[in-house]
TrEMBL record:
The keyword Oxidoreductase does not apply. SUPFAM superfamilies: DNA/RNA polymerases (SSF56672). Residues 1-67 form the Reverse transcriptase domain. InterPro entries: DNA/RNA_pol_sf, Integrase_H2C2, Retrovirus_Pol_polyprotein, Rev_trsase/Diguanyl_cyclase, RT_dom, RT_RNaseH_2. It holds the Pfam family Integrase_H2C2. Gene3D superfamilies: 1.10.340.70, 3.10.20.370, 3.30.70.270. Residues 332-376 are annotated as: Disordered. This is Retrovirus-related Pol polyprotein from transposon. One of its GO terms (molecular function) is catalytic activity. Keywords: Multifunctional enzyme.
Amino acid sequence: MERVLRGLQWQTCLLYLDDIIVYGNSFDKAVNRLSEVLTRLREAGLKLSAKKCHLFRTQVTYLGHIVSQDGISPDPRKIESVTEWPTPSSVKHVRSFVGLCSYYRRFIRGFAEICSPLHKLTEKDKKFAWTEECERAFRTLKRSLTTAPVLGYPDETGLFILDTDACDVGIGGVLSQRLEGSSEETVVAYFSKTLSKSERRYCVTRKELLAVVSSVKHFHHYLYGRKFLIRTDHGALRWLTNFRNPEGQVARWLEVLLTYDFDIRHRPGKQHGNADALSRRPCGDCKHCERAEAKEAEQDDDYRIVGCNLEKVYISPFPGVDGDPKLVVENSASTRQRSDLETAPPEVQSVKKAEQAPEDTPEEGANLDSGGRGQKPAWFHRWSDVELREMQIADKDIGPILLWKEVQDSRPDWAQITAGSPTLKNYWNQWDRLDLKEGVLYRRFESSDGMSVLLQLVAPRRIQEEILYSTHNHRLSGHLMTKKTIERIRDTFYWSGYRRHVEKWCRSCDVCAARKGPTRS
């Protein structure tokens, strides 16, 4: 059937096995599209059952859903089987019930949290015991399905709004849309997910970030390639796009988000009822995240993690000199020297409030860190600006962005890059952070406190391996480990996926492997 209707699916009709639905926003368009589909079927020698055909309806039942001009809702006949479901008496019955309800989970806000007691019954080696909590979840699911809302259709002209939240047992998101000229928001879909045992031990900040990343990935087909708004009731996530030198899991999450174009806004919990399912508590006792981040917290020169609470820190290049208008960092070391060969930051001992004179405010685009950060390594000057520009223009992903930057200030339309590679789309999403200097494309990299602004050369493919070799393998580079190599490259260069490239490069380094010694069996 897919071969017969090739080219028409998603354009004039929808197809699932032998179920076909032809749609149109006017009678004439519906007739023309129906004619196209019938012609294809006739040419293939296929026949339709007249009893099963329903023509020119404003409301149809399709794949267990009622589809109408108002939106999509569950089929009441399917819901009856849920409401009449007897109390489960075994793990098998629980799985069957939850599986049926999961088909309509997009209509139920907080589905994963509601189902949590039932999911626990299906865990391995868990003794089956139907408790009051299970009964309450069972009844709540039935009630939620019978009162499920009608979900609206997405509109290409409207602004998508993604509300995310996390609780102790699950995460969730609500995708809604506000049409131009209207203040009313229409819900498009709900998303929820039960947290694994390890994820339940995350601190609140990490859970909330997981909720953002998971929700964005779930609604990828709605959000990719368009501007949208993320709303969260967790204030720390306002600094999401400014996290400095993230590592490990957080770095991977932020790399995923970099491919999307969004603004993030904090919304107090009282106004966040559509996604909020969480009673807040301090996360100072989160040992899981403490262990995961302890090492990088001691070395990080922009953030300190204390009981999983992120604090923005600006470290002055000289001991005793106040840096940030709001924060002062007292270094335990008597001197702090930063160079291309000595990049290890000192231990941060304490953080306290402070004032600073207005004249210390940085200028836009300046490389502010003294003592080496932002300064180009000596070998950088092997390339002239003319050579760098030529290599960037020749790069299939960087070249189009550079040439667009020269002729226009606004980001090109999505249609102009939709056929491009993921790398090109990544640069397109970062349009506002890219600048031209002497005809060469650079990326602005700012710390969250605004006191450090670096210009990173957007490195074309032709010189990426040379950068990796000079930064890690050269006899003056010292074969530093992955984290330090990433820091060195980040202070001067940028390209899409450079962290993954550094990790792979360091893993394949024979000198580093020999230094580690043989693994013990």
